[in-house]
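Morning F.,

Quick status update on the modeling queue. The single chain you submitted on Monday has been processed. Sequence for confirmation:
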Amino acid sequence: MDKKINVFIVDDHEIFRNGLKLVFSKNKEIDVIGEAESGEEFLQLMDSINFDVVLMDIKMNGINGIQTTERAIKKDPNLRALVLSTFGEEEFLHQIINVGAKGFLLKNVDKETLFTAIKLVNSNQNYFSPELLPFFTNKYINPGRASNEDVVLTKRELEILELIGEGLSNIEIADKLFISIRTVDTHKNNLISKTGSNNIVSLLIYAIKNKIISIN
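Structure tokens below.
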């Protein structure tokens, strides 16, 4: 059997943490190896616990999940964070991606989807809760932007767009394609310009909507 995925839970509600632990106790592929009730506690513990994926709440006492994720990724750029969200917190979702989280899902998600999301994030892929994608569509996609038929992307731009969709950083993309980080930046800027996007988040949503890439 493959190695179990070690999960760390960060949430300020003990009942919710206990509920997650109960769900995971019935799964043979996932173990809860640590938990914290605040971002501060997690940041203190993260170096001493060997976990694969952290499940991060957004709204917590003290520093929130976005700030915690940002600080944690600065300490460990390879951190795989899956942020837990509830309806009404959509305003934070673009920040979640911008700080480097691998994805987000709703707290009322069914257990099979939760397991799938954890497995994808553990394999360094993204997971976006489908119910929340319309928020990005409404917020970031401009009605007057170029249609898919008007956009012609080069082979290299398509490669980079696929890797952005997989959650790779500029450094990881540069290493994978044997190009410089500056070249990656240039291609990203070209992609944003060609698609009429505002930033990487809106570029990603444009690519999903127009079926240029797919996000599991």
